[in-house]
Design a protein that fits this description.
This protein is α/β, with parallel strands linked by helices. α7 packs across α8. It starts with a strand and ends in a 7-residue tail after the last helix. It is about 20% helix and about 30% strand. The protein is built from ten helices and 41 strands. β2 (about 25) and β3 form a beta hairpin. It folds into two domains: about 5-225, Spore Coat Polysaccharide Biosynthesis Protein SpsA, Chain A, CATH 3.90.550; about 245-435, UDP N-Acetylglucosamine Acyltransferase, domain 1, CATH 2.160.10. It binds uridine-diphosphate-N-acetylglucosamine (UD1) and calcium ion. Calcium ion binds near residues 100, 102 and 227.
C-alpha cells in the first residue's frame, strides 16, 4: 500500500519569540522541518506534503524539491492544516502519516512501525503515544474500560481527572486516507481554543466503529516537540548524542563527546580522533587517521587522511592527505592545502592553492594565490591581493623561498626556486632562480650611541 506523509509546518511558534517561523530554526545546522521531511522519506513515504502558512516564504525553500507544498491560509488548528494538504494528495487512497514539523527527533523506524501496525490491523488510525512523568501541555490518551483508545483530550479541555492521565499524544499518526478525510469533515471547533483539532479524528473514527490504536513508544525523547528555545537546545542535545554515538560505533574516537557537535551530513572515517570543542557542519568529510581539534569548526570542508587540524576554522576548504593546520588557522572558501602542506599559526588563506609540501607556518595572509610545491613562506608574509577596488592574483612557483615579512603586491609572479630577502616589498615579477630584495639599505654609524647620551629627566 502506498504511503503519503503530511508534515504540519504552518504554525507561527509564538513561544520561540522569534522573527523567524519556528520550523526554520535549526538543530545541528538542519532546519526543524527538514529533519521531519527527511525522516518521512527515510521511512519510505512515497510522497511528502508540507503544509506551510505563517511566513511561508521562509519555509517553502527549505522543503521544495523534497516535498509538495500546500498552503494553509489561516492557522485554524491541526485538523484544518491536514485538510489543506488534501488537494495536493489528489485521489490518493493509501496510508497517510501525519508528522509535526516541530518535532525533529522522530525516528524513521518508528514511522515505518506505525505504518505496518495500521496495515496489519486495518485500523482507521494508529497514534504514537508516550508515558510522561510531566505530561503538561500534551494531549492525553483517554482509554475505555477495556483499555481501548476512545479519544484524545487536549490539555486546555481536560478535566482534572483527564489531566492526571500520563499517556500522551506525540502528534505523530498513521491514518487510513479515507477514514481520515471522512472524519475531518466532521471536526468542529467547539473547544477551549476554538481550533479544529486533528486529535478529534480519533474519537470520531472510534464512534463510527473503526479500529483506533495507540502505539506506545519507550523512546519518548523522539517525540519532543520544539515550542521554545529551551526545547530547541534540548532537541539539539539529543541529536548530538545520537549522531556522536553513531560515529563512535563507526570507529571514531572522541575524548569528550559532550563538546563535539556534528551535523547530519558529515562523514567521518574510522580511526579519526576528535578532541574537545569541535563543530563539524554541512558537507564536511574527514579521512582516516586525522586528528581534529581542540577548538575547531569545519564547515563544508573536505579533510583527507592523516591530517592534523588544530584550533582551526575552515569554511568550504579542502585539506589533502597529511596536511596540517593551526593552531589558529583560518581557511576561507576555496582554500586548498595539497598533500603534506601546512597552514600554521595565525595564518589566513583564501581562494588559494598551497602546493604539495609547501609551508605557510606563521602569521601570514595568502589570498588569490597559486603556490607550487615545496615553497616556504617566511613568518609575517602577505599577498597584497586587493587594491581597494579589485582582487589580483599571485603566483609563487615551485621551491621559491619567501623571506619573513615579505609583501607580495599582486598581480605578481615569483619564479621557480627564486629567493626573496626578508622584509621585501615585491611589486615586480621575480625571475626563476633570482634573488629579489626590495627593502631600504641598512645604514650604520659607528659609535653613534655613545656620542649621543640620553639624559634622564629630573
Ligand atoms: C499537538 C496536539 C497534542 C499533542 C502535541 C504533541 C492537536 C490539537 N494537539 O499540540 O495533542 O500532544 O501536538 O506535540 O493537534 N500547525 C499547523 N497549522 C495549524 C496549527 C498547527 O500547521 O493551524 C502545525 C504547527 O506548526 C506544528 C504542529 O502543527 O508544527 C503542531 O501544532 P502545535 O500548535 O505545536 O500543537 P500542540 O499544541 O503542540
Ligand atoms: Ca507542538
Amino acid at each position: 500500500m502506498e504511503t503519503a506523509a503530511i508534515v504540519l509546518a504552518a504554525g507561527a511558534g509564538t513561544r520561540m519569540k522569534s522573527k523567524k517561523p519556528k520550523v526554520v530554526h535549526e538543530v545541528l545546522g538542519r532546519p526543524l522541518v527538514r529533519w521531519v521531511v527527511e525522516a518521512a522519506k527515510d521511512a519510505g513515504a512515497d510522497k511528502v506534503v508540507a503544509v506551510v502558512g505563517h511566513q511561508r516564504e521562509q519555509v517553502i525553500p527549505l522543503v521544495e524539491g523534497d516535498a509538495l507544498v500546500a498552503v494553509q491560509q489561516q492557522q485554524r488548528g491541526t485538523a484544518d492544516a491536514v485538510l489543506a494538504a488534501k488537494e495536493a494528495l489528489g485521489d490518493f487512497d493509501g496510508a497517510v502519516v501525519v508528522l509535526s514539523g516541530d518535532s525533529p527527533l522522530i525516528r524513521p523506524e518508528t514511522i515505518a512501525e506505525m505504518v505496518a501496525l495500521r496495515e496489519e490491523h486495518q485500523a482507521a488510525v494508529v497514534v504514537l503515544t508516550m508515558e510522561l512523568a510531566n505530561p503538561f501541555g500534551y494531549g492525553r490518551i483517554v482509554r475505555d474500560g477495556a483499555g481501548e483508545v476512545e479519544r484524545i483530550v487536549e490539555q486546555k479541555d481536560a478535566t482534572a481527572e483527564e489531566a492526571a492521565i500520563t499517556e500522551c499524544n506525540s502528534g505523530f499518526y498513521c491514518f487510513d486516507a479515507q477514514a481520515l478525510f471522512e472524519a475531518l469533515a466532521q471536526v468542529d471547533s467547539n473547544n477551549a481554543q476554538g481550533e479544529f483539532y486533528l486529535t478529534d479524528v480519533l474519537g470520531i473514527a472510534r464512534a463510527a466503529g473503526r479500529p483506533v490504536l495507540a502505539y506506545k513508544t519507550d523512546d519518548a525523547e523522539q517525540c519532543l516537540g520544539v515550542n521554545s528555545r529551551g526545547q530547541l537546545a534540548q532537541a539539539t542535545k539529543v541529536m548530538q548524542r545520537r549522531i556522536n554515538a553513531q560515529h563512535m560505533a563507526g570507529g571514531v574516537t572522541m575524548m569528550d563527546p559532550d563538546t563535539v557537535w556534528i551535523g547530519p551530513e558529515v562523514t567521518i572515517d574510522p580511526d579519526v580522533e576528535l578532541l574537545p570543542n569541535v563543530m563539524l557542519m554541512g558537507a564536511t568529510t574527514i579521512g582516516e587517521d586525522s586528528v581534529v581539534g581542540p577548538n575547531t569548526r569545519l564547515t563544508d570542508t573536505r579533510v583527507g587522511r592523516g591530517c592534523v587540524i588544530d584550533e582551526t576554522v575552515a569554511i568550504e576548504a579542502q585539506i589533502d592527505d597529511g596536511a596540517t593546520c593551526g593552531p589558529r588557522a583560518y581557511l576561507r572558501p576555496a582554500a586548498h592545502l595539497c598533500e603534506g602542506a601546512k597552514a600554521g599559526t595565525h595564518v589566513e588563506i583564501k581562494k588559494s592553492t598551497i602546493g604539495k609540501g609547501s609551508k605557510v607556518p606563521h602569521l601570514s595572509y595568502i589570498g588569490d594565490t597559486t603556490m607550487g610545491e615545496g615553497v616556504n613562506i617566511g613568518a609575517g608574509s602577505i599577498t597584497c591581493n586587493y587594491d581597494g577596488a579589485n582582487k589580483w592574483p599571485t603566483v609563487i612557483e615551485d621551491r621559491a623561498f619567501i623571506g619573513s615579512d615579505t609583501m607580495m603586491v599582486a598581480p605578481v609572479t615569483i619564479g621557480e626556486g627564486a629567493l626573496v630577502g626578508a622584509g621585501s616589498t615585491i611589486t615586480k615579477d621575480v625571475a626563476p632562480g633570482a634573488l629579489a630584495l626590495g627593502r631600504a639599505k641598512q645604514q650604520q654609524v659607528e659609535g653613534w650611541v655613545a656620542a649621543h647620551p640620553i639624559e634622564k629627566k629630573k
